[in-house]
Amino acid sequence: MKSAVAATVTTALPAQPQHGAARAKVGEEKNKEADGDDRVILHFDYDCFYASVIENAHPALRTRPLGVRQKSILATCNYVARTRGVRKLMPVAQARAACPDLVVVCGEDLAPFRDASRRLWAFLRGAVAGARTERLGLDEVFLDVTAAVVYNRALLNPNALRDSFFHLSAEDPERGFTFDATRFAGCVHPPPDGQGEQHAGAGAAVLDDPVRVRLMLASHLAGYLRRRLEEDFGYTSSGGISTNKVLAKLVGSVNKPRNQTTLLPVQGENTIQEFLDAHQIREIPGIGSRTSSIIADHLFPPGKAVRAGHQEPEQQTPSGITVRDVLRYPDMSPALLSRILDRPGAERGGGKKIWNLLHGRDASEVKEAGVAPTQISVEDTYMARPLNTLPEALRELSVLATSLVRRMRADLTTAAEELTDPSSAGSAGLPLGTQQKRRWLAYPKTLRLSTCAHPGKSGSVSSTSNPSFSRISRSQPLPSFALDLGRPCAEVAERLVREALLPLFRRLHVGRAAGWNLALLNVCVANMVPVAGDGSSGSGGGAGGRDISRMFRTQGERLREWSAWDDDATTTTTTTTTMMSSPSLSPPRDRNDLFDGKAEGGAVANGGSEEKNDVEDAGSASAETELWAVDDGDSDSDVGWEDEDGDSVAQQRCAACGHVVPTFAMSAHERFHAMGD
DNA sequence: TGGGGTCCT
DNA sequence: AGGACCC
């Protein structure tokens, strides 16, 4: 995978912004069969997120075993509970049996979790200039921090690595943190002490490897961000640092609660493939249960004898087939994999994609999520008492519809900041001072209703292989009255039921007036169309409108914001070489060394258990387009880096502008002035 | 055995 | 409209 002399960083960029699609294509080609070592990706996973949200609202629960329930299972539980034998996704009854004093909290309403997730996400989005952030579910975030890391690598001072300063913005030299560039923050994946290692620690010959230096920098960035998440927001997290999304995410789970892991290449060894080889294929993100079982069935046809080569039953995740098993299979190849997975409806590049994942290659980009979701759905299940009559169904539909309308208003509108004159505001019939004008950021074009019949009640199917019985759905255009902000949610919802959802329901269940045995109802709006004049919403569903402004915020533009050259031929090589010879690129002292003095959990406490203080703090603080290029073609490391000895954060005042700047930021700061033209 | 999401066909 | 994937 990794070649010793990669030197591929994409800082040299065309002068003009590129069209998003064009840029993506270039990216694909570049990553096609190449290393894909040219990015730096962070993955954060908030530890037992739902439980943490509850704990932050009720700090007294922090020390008690806590489970968060949805219907009859625990969506998650805190680590105290896990100590007592409680597991994620465990039935509530079983959990109580294992831990009688378990505190169980209902988590069926996702609003508090959604709010907390958005607050953390807003912080991360604004934290690193030029980074892209992508949310996965409510509790995971990817960041592409390539630009910031490349920039900071160019600024490393080989004479004072221990007192390095990481710039979070090229625009504001004071924004950042100090760190020790002679070591990684947190854990690294093949552990330096590892028995097999004959390299001296994590060190020696390796630091002339630019990938490794970037990962070292990224580990400190990840450590800093996680510390902020914990200290400022009360959420601990696990982090993974690597060169693409799948590896970052995978390696993040190596040291799970409240820690982080950097996956580093080791020269002359294929440590990344070894890391992957040991995983069950089902554990690789992107390889789901369907693909897993198809592969398993092909490699070891169900009729035949059990695998001989495997000594242990290994009662872990399903199938037991590892990445190594697949790759070592006779004549295994992308083509064979494609044939195995080929079936009607299969994804086109599917085989090749899986093949790449099995090798740790993942060219997918970190996608900046729009402020508006592309879909909003509300659902409820009725396992215990399936719906069979129209009055029941209508009652539930109206509950769901009310909640849907409320969510549309919460997630798809924003405060209207138009400079409306007081008289026109008053004419809307609301008190002047308290008027909450909202306007749509994006509006859905489609309304969809889905149902699902009860698996066991009337029909067949009890198979474990059946992942919840399949849904059926019907959709229609969303009536425009659904967008009327002047009426109460419940009123809009009732009309929605009568005029849209009921007809959809009849289309779903033609010919039967009752007795459907419905175990699930789902109401969904989709196909969001951004409102013209606002650049912040989801992907255009139809021909409606494309979000032009977002298409220009491509990776190229982000990199240009930082734009320090990463040419290994220049002074940076000196930097890294010198770095190597520095006393120790020591192994992490300890697995939990990141937050030294701190005793136990966040302590943010969040004051009283104030119920809701919500509403849109999410919008602000995103990384602005700070378009200025630090051209650091030369001059770098020697000039301006005297033998500064000051232990902690030495500062200087800039003669040009009077800003107080950390000494290690001074060089960058001066270039800032030089740039100004 | 939940209550959500995304993308592709 | 459905299926695959993710949490």
Features:
single chain, 677 residues, alpha+beta, Alpha-Beta Plaits, Dna Ligase, domain 1, 6-stranded mixed beta sheet, 4-stranded antiparallel beta sheet, 20 helices, 19 strands, 15% strand, globular, disordered N terminus, disordered C terminus, DNA-binding
Secondary structure layout:
Blueprint: H1 20-31, E1 41-46, H2 49-57, E2 66-70, E3 73-77, H3 79-83, H4 92-98, E4 103-106, H5 111-127, E5 132-136, E6 140-144, H6 146-154, E7 164-167, E8 176-179, E9 187-188, H7 210-233, E10 237-242, H8 245-252, E11 260-262, H9 271-277, H10 289-299, H11 323-327, H12 334-341, H13 350-358, E12 375-381, H14 390-412, E13 413-415, H15 422-427, E14 438-440, E15 442-453, E16 472-477, H16 489-508, E17 518-530, H17 548-551, H18 555-562, H19 571-581, E18 651-653, E19 660-662, H20 663-675
Parallel strand pairs: 2-4, 9-11, 10-11
Antiparallel strand pairs: 1-6, 1-10, 2-3, 5-6, 7-8, 12-17, 13-14, 15-16, 15-17, 18-19
Helix pairs in contact: 6-7, 6-18, 12-13, 14-16
This protein binds a DNA duplex (9 and 7 nucleotides) through helix 10, strand 12 and strand 16.
